[in-house]
Amino acid sequence: MLNSFEGLQYICRLVFNLHKIPIFLFDKKGNLVYEILTDFSRNPLYPSNEAIIVQLFSGTTTYRFPILKESKYLEKYFSISIYSNDQFIGTIAVGPVMNFRMTEETINGLFRDHNIIATKEEMIHYYKQIPVLNNYDFINLSMVLHYMVYQQKLELVDILKNNEILEREEDDIEQPDIHI
Question: N or C: which end of the chain has fewer CB within 10 A?
Answer without folding.
Answer: C
